Amino acid sequence: MNNYCLRYTFIICFIFIFMNVNAQYETIRLKRIGDVIGITGDSIQEKSTITNLDSTILFRNRILNIKANKWGEICHIGYSLFPTEVRDSSWSYIYDFVERYLLELDLLEKNNDVKKQLRADDILLDGDFPDILDELSTDYQVTIENLKYHRYDVNYKRGESRIRMEFTPNCQLMLGANDKELEEVFSRKFRLFLGENKDSVQYSLVIDMYGNKKDSIKCTLYDLLCYIEQEQCQMIFGQDEDGNDIMFAINEQLDYIHLAILKENHAYIYVYIPIHTFPEFFINQIKEEQ
Amino acid sequence: MKYNLLISVFFCAVLLPCKAQELSVSLSDGSETKTSLTIGAERNLSALLTQIDKAYKTNAKQLSFVGVQISDYAKSILNDALWNNMHFKLCKKEIRDHLWFFQNKMEVRHIPFVLENGKSNRDYQEAIIEFDLNGSILSFAFQNEQTLFESLEAGSRTAEARRQLIIWKWVERLRNAYNEKDTVFLNDFYSDDAVIINGSVCLVKRRNSDTRNVVFNNDVKIKKNYLRKLRIMMKKSDYTFDVRFTAIEDPHERNENVNKFLTKRECKNSYYYGIRFRQQLTICKSSTTFSETGYLFMLWEFPKDENKTPIIHVRTWQPEIVEFDRIYSLTDFSDFIKNQ
After folding, report:
1. What are the tens digits of pLDDT across the range B80-111?
2. Out of B120, B123, B152, whose CB is closest to A241?
3. DSSP readout, B131-185?
4. In this predicted complex, what is the ipTM?
5. A15 vs chain B: nearest CA distance in angstroms?
6. Considering only CB atoms, which chain A residues are within 8 Å of B308?
């Protein structure tokens, strides 16, 4: 009996904390979603890794998948559609996007709005929305195919029913923030990252930002490389004719490049350059030539 | 018997975590299947990198080469010439690189390390490692000297890739400025004497006939007038703008490797880039949506002085009905560039 009391007290306390502390969000878009579905609290206690916050939060009778980054900001909200063992694969950005996007479609008021949104985002969704949400469960096969010329094809198969979503890996669409905001997210998260990796200061890093703004951060080159690597970027180094080291950090899942120009003790970086409309050969050329 | 088993389990539990985890190395020579030569080089490189990683973590005075097939020369380079003077740490947990084959040896060229020379001095360097045809390591060197053999042409290609990406970033910012209705920033994008050409199409009825001719008109504006009109529209808070750029498809498909959206001219102080895309503009006003698609060409000047920001001299827009060969390009503004 006491055990039950204790358990219920704990759950009530947990809900109370969750509903009353202001949540921090990685992007404005996530905050908007959080506000609509009623996440008003911050239950983030575990801050050491990217965390699945609570898999029992329901919205319209469907389980939500909510994640926080290691600094406690909510970095993902979506319908929980993929089993954990599938999500841990290298396609994690794509799974997150599909989950969030289908939730966002469900938040639109009219069916007509859904069609408009899909058209605007250049996404092909095979199946009637929102009926397909009922079709989705953990009991299905999922395949992701990287189609030629920057298109992804996500296929769900359950028995005879099949759901297909085809889209361009546009980093702004998939991360849910425009170019200007992504630059701010990079700057903020990198500062947080530096906060926990106190190290000798060697580099003066300047982030080139929208509106001719330059954001200066003191860090080591090693910090920068570690931070970029955790974004699952492939780093390619080259040297230009003036002898500057050039780093191309390519994220092929989200089709963006961070471009850093490294000179003696300072670095200049352009972040989140979207490359989904770049000709394929240009990226291959960078990879082959460096 | 039971006692022995317990001791074995205890030793396994204690010793297994101590065994350094082998670093993952994947080398490719471009062929679909890996040969035994590639696998041998992979295995040996993984063993060497694991030992370097272990030595770095334990701050070891000497590198160990247990399990590594390596020449005495390479051992001496690694320990005497390098490790005694500075410690270095691998930048990646997984290495993927190209394995180059030569007549009597194999080589990898981009193994990324951070070198620590003193407490505050750190530097990024890539290592070149040579193998014999049995996969045994012949030599190890950081690239600062060796990169000199790479031609200047490679350097200029890197510089060009860099410039093209920066242009792309600025194009994305321009797109963002329209979407955010940021007329202040838009004003900075265009040079004071920028030329703005807006194409339109009208159907003119032929004399004595019911058929109509397509007539293309070009409305040439100066920056001031273009931005004034834009400001009036953007001031209306219930208007939202959505500008999207996509690549223009060349119907002739003359050469897949020709960079269709970007052309370049180099002048004394600047690079001039002609950039063209298919532009889709959608303006929404409450429930009304206006959408038009056309071809956009922009002539950007990128000063060689990197402290100066890029600027647009020409912006042209033509409706989608225009044939591919009639879309504006850099050649249409050659005289302008010559006079700069």
Report:
1. 878 887 888 887 778 887 787 766 778 887 78
2. B152
3. E-TTS-EEEEEEHHHHGGGS-HHHHHHHHHHHHHHHHHHHHHHHHHHHHTT-HHH
4. 0.74
5. 38
6. none
